[in-house]
Amino acid sequence: MQLTDRQQRIFQLVLEGYISSGQPIGSAWVVAHLSGEISSATVRTELVALEQAGLIRAPHTSAGRIPTEEGYRHYIETFMHPARVDREMEIVEHELDAADDSPEEKVRHIARELSQLAGNVVMVGIDPRSLYATGMSRMYESPESADTELMRTVSHALDRADELMDELFDVASHTDVKILIGKENPIDENLSLMVTTYATSEGARIMALLGFMRMRYDRNIALMQAMKRLLEG
Known about the structure:
The protein is of the alpha+beta class. Helices cover 50% and strands 17% of the residues. A hairpin with a 2-residue loop joins strand 6 and strand 7. Helix 1 crosses helix 3, helix 2 crosses helix 3 and helix 6 packs antiparallel against helix 10. The longest helix has 17 residues.
């Protein structure tokens, strides 16, 4: 479906509002954030059209809408731009300089920083057969952590991090950060995966970020790109 400018604007409000709040977005919220430019009736009509297009859905427990897997994909492919993370990276680089870590500890340090800033699980290759994984506790800060089955999946992925190496290499982009949402994600269809490789003198290593579909894709991809440069520096 080709969205009109108005539909695109409303969809972006729903998606970004949901990512920010974790709560389904209703028509009244959209009208308020459009400063009354569009009537409630028109907004409701457009929300129905977006739902029919498969970009948003209404959870059973709410009259509001949340993005679908296809909705997140549409956002990434059409109007997402990496956020600015210059200030955060200045702090990270300063901490790395002060720490004077060994090469292996530097990798772990960067993984922990990425996990803290993104609020997601991070897995980074230490050597050709070993992944360092961190960040499970960050996942519990999100409302989605109430889903015990989903959290068990994340925990299981961490437990078998080394076994995931080949799967991650199979789907990784060696030049940029690849985003795999839902059914594209080899780990679990209810999660999103960002994955890339970074170059070392001994060959490519994996760097991956695993989280709920509701994440700041614009911020996380910028952080991944910046951390990749640090690892290769």
